[in-house]
Amino acid sequence: MTDQLLILPALVPIATAFVLIPFRRARMFQRTMAFLAMASMLVLVVYLAVWVRRHGMLVYRAGDWPAPFGIILSVDLFPLLLMIMTMVTGTVCLIFAFRTIGEEKERFFFYPLYLIITGSINGAFMTGDLFNLFVFFELILMTSYVLLSIGSTRAQLVETFKFLMLNTVSTAFFLVGVALVYALTGSLNMADIAVKMSQVEDTRMVVLTGLVFLFTFGVKAAIVPLYFWLPRTYAAAPTAITAYLGEVGTKVGVYALYRVFTLIFLHGDGFPHRLIMGIALVTMVVGVLGAIAQMDFKRLLAFHIISQIGYMLLGLSFFSLDPALYGVALVGLAGGIIHIVHHMAAKPALFLLAGATEQVTGTTDLGKMHGLIHVLPALGFTFLVGGLSLTGVPPTSGFFSKFFLVQAGFRSGHFVAAATAVGVSLLTLFSMIKIFRYIYWGKPYQLQRPVERGYYRKYLLPGLALVAVGLVMGFGAQYLIDMTHTAADGLLHPERYVEAVLGEEAAARYSQAVRPVTAGQGPLGAPLASGDLLAPGGPLALAAEGMRGEANGLGGRAPVGP
Amino acid sequence: MALVVGVMFGVSIHLLQQRSVLRLALGSMLISHAVHLILLTMAGLKRGAPPFLSVPAESYTDPVPHALILTAIVIGFGVTAFLLVLAYRMYQESGSDDMDSLRDPDRLV
């Protein structure tokens, strides 16, 4: 029964959108319906996550067709965590949009588009079918073209056009990848592809296919050689859209990379993962340097997205099915996942605060603002906490992701990676200080007109809510760490995914091919139960033990970055 | 087929590197057609057998690639339509179809 619920997070927003289209003039009705759809889906995905945490993967078979033939939706904990954050951010950005988006855009189908994009993002997170993923990607892209160009200022049109052209090429390569996969395996179901790919003799072909997917998802995730579109496209759009799309849209690309590179493309002696690590490091550095150079509030924050994508990919690059590296891979992947979850709240928060600042000053140019903390102290201090959260200062959730990533870096001997992660954190802090110094410090700002009544309630509250989410995740880190390690454990046992979709026989075959070392000794480890994680002999305890041993070898505890 | 696909990819990438908006649009259309041909070729072209299991026959052709191509054509059509409208609106707003002069819209005006 619960598996039937799985279709709803994609279906309900899209269906609501179509209901709303005829009522373009009824603004209050549109707002209420959009909010209800978002909020109810938030409740639903939280319920699904709790269910999956207890009982294991959920698979929904459309029309009850057996797996390799029918279309399936399949979720383990990882996509559900991302969906929870999508719905949280989506709901908050929607509330911010009520106040800021403007009547004209509201009439121009803003809410239906917003709901369609939400539904297709959820669909992309859930689908277990490669071609379905393509269709959901196209849906996301089409709606985001419209959302980005809504309002039709010159900058928006020009930037959307560039975004569209780049994505035409990336879409073409997605289909090339699908064609290659189909030629190699004759299947589109991800689990089935994974099993058949693991039997392919010519691994060079598989690695090549993997790289095609790295390119096409890389464009969506804005990794370094392919990031040009991001800062300008998103800086041109209205703030609520930037906060939502800029954050969640890129995460779909990151999620797709996580999925295919932990399930399907495991060949090539770890070459793809080493390549991803290289890209991740360059992405981090280039992104943060770009951010430091900017003098525009929104562009600066947009460059930060790129740098943070680097951290997420760094987590992925620690993936390994070698049992000896299990501890490192677990900690690294969990770090990456925490970073995605953390960032999906922290970055939109900053964008919304930038939008709130823009409401007062009418500009996003850092050089034209100063001393706002004297006028609006609450805004300034909220931004301070949000900025520190993004940087990764301890009581916030950003700390834990970097802690685990740096730990994994040191323990696997990737000292350059760990050092870069720490260094980029410092540069991130530097750029946050830059924003703070330019906008909030200095001599008091002379307002053109008095601050609107109810300003805080209208504009600050959404950003404050997301900053608070970040803080709650930081103080409730126990729960966050437990969930993300379980999700990472799921990614490290792709056999479970295959088993849930295709059954035991296929899973055993798959496991034998991708894990030659453990073949024959019961390849399917039991999924982590709640509370197992910290139990003596559990994964975290093992990881900690391994770390102590290695740290002694290094002459002391491995240093941990901010 | 591989040769045709190669030529189409070459031409479309050449077009995509042009400055003129119209050529960019043509390039994007051509590249999507090249990809449809790839899908057709990679799946292996088979003829003379029915794609429906309900028709009794000794062997069957695989209908999936055609379904994929059909979906891709529909999506490509939608994107192209939007692209042309967007290009036209952009031309109206900025009075130029030269990508070089549209490089940094902030500096225009």
What does this structure look like?
Chain A is mainly alpha-helical and 562 residues long. Helix content of chain A is 74%, strand content 1%. Chain A has a two-stranded antiparallel ribbon. Chain A is globular. Chain A starts with a helix and ends in a 9-residue tail after the last helix. Mean pLDDT of chain A is 84; it is low at 518-532 and 546-562. By secondary structure, chain B is mostly helical. Chain B is 62% helix and 0% strand. Chain B is built from three helices and no strands. Chain B is elongated and about 60 Å long. The termini of chain B are far apart. The model of chain B has no long low-confidence stretch (mean pLDDT 82). The A-B interface holds A 131, 135, 138, 141-142, 145-146, 149, 152-155, 157-161, 164-165, 168-169, 171-172, 175-176, 178-180, 182-183, 186, 188, 236 and B 16, 21, 24, 28, 31-32, 34-36, 38-39, 41-44, 62, 64-65, 68, 71-72, 75, 78-79, 82-83, 86-87, 89-90, 93-94, 102, 105-106, 108-109.
Strand and helix map with partners:
The complex is a heterodimer of chains A (562) and B (109).
Chain A: H1 2-5, H2 8-20, H3 27-55, E1 58-61, E2 72-75, H4 77-100, H5 103-107, H6 110-126, H7 130-149, H8 154-185, H9 190-199, H10 203-221, H11 229-236, H12 239-263, H13 271-293, H14 297-317, H15 326-361, H16 372-375, H17 377-391, H18 397-411, H19 415-440, H20 455-475, H21 477-492, H22 494-502, H23 504-514, H24 539-553
Chain B: H1 2-16, H2 21-42, H3 64-94
